[in-house]
Design goal:
The structure is a homodimer. Helices cover 36% and strands 22% of the residues of chain A. Chain A is an alpha/beta fold. The radius of gyration of chain A is 19 Å and the shape is globular. The model of chain A has no long low-confidence stretch (mean pLDDT 96). The interface between A and B is medium-sized, with 25 and 25 residues.
């Protein structure tokens, strides 16, 4: 496995089919499953480890975001990654004068809660796509809205890359794997699976044509009663993320949630 | 020569060295000289003809911008262009949800006078670069600020393209070639060369260390006296376009001007 930190050291890999997994490190089984999928379907597997400052708001956890780089590299090596691109912020952000922005879906939910976040994501993913020239890029559906933003950007700017979105991996108790789970206190860790539990519960209700407004309101109350501070809990169409209330309103939809336990913000979703 | 209007019809030209000249059509000798340079230094010459709606402000001349497509294609053919990409606005703008923006130099002069203009330019040039994958792209220095914006974008987003900027071509009387010159009335056409005349005059003055503030003020008065409504006339550093007043302030600099004759906005510059 080759670890590359400088843009100028990136190799030409003419003729190779490149599978690419962009990450912010602090790797868990969710990332590794994306890398295994890349490995299985391409001739070269490239992963990036880059804690992207542009996608953090000033009040967020950029500084304390976990960076266990040695363990991350061991994990990449173990799953058979060929190249890890691990640039510094200076190297990849550069002058930072050019930004890529996606209108529409970025203004809702995560975009509303975290203004500028998706612009930071889109800008850095555009750079990574340009530098690493993947044939296929792998993303986890836990960040559903991020997947939709990337898909729109790839379509609009005509990036010659295929996108592969993989289902969320979970702990045995249902908690979606996330690098931020390590922030949770023991008490909060015990409460955390209730976020997925309520999404499944509401999923059953709306698919049984029960009153979705009532289901969502009760869901929020249940989360609040269990120590969550709910940012949003909604049922939305996919890919445009309009709030919906009836099965017939969209052929594809998702239940989406973001909520705090203490200072830790968890997000999760279920595709219907 | 092949004329392509659909993105899906664009060919693969593996192994060819591609020279690319993006234009809005209404071709003049300035464009043709860029195409000849592309032809001389590449194995395939691609030109685009696309009146980009994103770079026009609502009150500007998008609707009446000249579109002499048959004559343009004849001219392309005559200089030996291999492929002309001539998409519809729907085809190239698409959903129009993703935009590429360049901070800094875009906020001054042309960017100030035409808010959103450079975002429109950068977004469409990014798409054209992605779709046409040129090795070298050719731009005219008459649009100096545009050249600087493209250069910043290419650097920041790591487009694998070399940029070639060519000197402004002029009529015998000094007027910079521009597709918009055809809008000028006979009287205005006679006055128009005075824009370049005053730039040359001030260029001589500032290089002789005369008072640049006075030179610029007199220049504006001269233009006004000759029927121009001056938008800006300034001396700026290159590439960052800070206003300067002394030779020592920047190793590279330019005198830049934008002014109206009637409804027609002319721009010009001299690199020092």
């Amino acid at each position: 496995m080759r670890v590359i930190t400088k843009i100028s050291d990136l190799p030409d890999y003419l003729g190779m089919k490149v599978g690419f997994v962009p990450t912010m490190g602090a790797l868990h089984e969710g990332h590794l499953s994306l890398m295994r999928a890349a490995k299985a379907n391409n001739s070269l597997t490239v992963a990036s480890i880059f804690v992207n400052p542009l996608q953090f708001l000033p009040n967020e956890d950029y500084g304390r975001y976990p960076r266990p780089i040695e363990r991350d590299l061991e994990l990449c090596e173990a799953v058979g990654v060929d190249i890890v691109f691990n640039p510094t912020a200076d190297e990849l952000v550069g002058d930072g004068l050019t930004t890529v922005a996606v209108e529409g879906v970025t203004e809702l939910y995560e975009g509303l809660a975290r203004p500028g976040h998706f612009e930071g994501v889109a800008t850095i993913v555009a750079k990574l796509f340009m530098l690493l020239r993947p044939n296929v890029a792998y993303f986890g559906l836990k960040d559903l809205q991020q997947c939709l933003v990337i898909r729109q950007m790839v379509k609009d700017l005509h990036f010659p890359v295929e996108l592969a979105f993989s289902p969320t991996l979970r702990e045995d108790d249902g908690l979606a794997l996330s690098s931020r789970n390590r922030y949770l206190s023991e008490t909060h860790r015990r409460a955390a699976p209730k976020l997925y539990e309520i999404l499944r519960h509401i999923s059953g209700q709306v698919q049984a044509n029960e009153n979705s407004d009532a289901a969502l309101t009760e869901g929020k109350q249940y989360l609040a009663a269990n120590g969550f501070v709910v940012d949003y809990l909604d049922w939305v169409s996919v890919p445009d993320m309009r709030s919906i209330r009836e099965i017939g309103e969209s052929s594809e939809s998702a239940l989406i949630a973001a909520a705090y336990l203490g200072k830790t913000r968890l997000i999760d979703n279920i595709l219907l």
